[in-house]
Design brief:
- The structure holds two protein chains of two kinds.
- By secondary structure, chain A is mostly helical.
- Chain A is built from three helices and no strands.
- The N and C termini of chain A lie far apart (60 Å).
- The chains are: A mainly alpha, B mainly alpha.
- Chains A and B meet through α1, α2 and α3 of A and α1, α2 and α3 of B.
Chain lengths: 108, 86
Amino acid sequence: MGFLDIGIILLLVGGIFFFGAGTLGLWRLPDVYCRIQAAAKCDTLGCLLVFLGLGIGLGFTWSTFKLLLIAVLVVITNATAAHAMAKAAIPESMAEGSCKWNYQGKGE
Amino acid sequence: MAELLPGLCIPLLFLIFACLGRAATGPAAVDRLLAINSLGIRIVALLAVSACIFETYFLDAAIVCALVIFVTTISVARYLEKDKLS
């Protein structure tokens, strides 16, 4: 087991750690917006770490280009999806009073 | 490295089922949508790991899965906005 394998294993375990942190935040955080933030950021970073580890392990091949393509796709689409879900969460949380914090500007 | 990758699939499967449980018990519709989005990202990562274990054509399935999850999330979120479509 060389120096490169230890780096790859550290990257993959770091990715799994951030996936676990995202799932924990999805279960334990009190509000829809907190859950959206935790899930979006932890999923993006965990996916990038896993793809970086697999790409270093595969070497300079055609599969690494596909991994890079999926990584760019995930970075763009995860932020867009989180923004759309936060916009979809605004009216019902304001209407039902389930919002724990005081958000400025809307509904007050 | 390749003999350690099945040990990576087991925590990913556990996290996928944890997200599925969150999607089943979410109080609002946006919670379920968020859990399904996170589940899709974990499925994409699991397909990428499976491509390194078995065959490389799992990467094409990972690209398609990422696109389908994105289109699903955007369309359902646009449907859930109260003052636009419904």
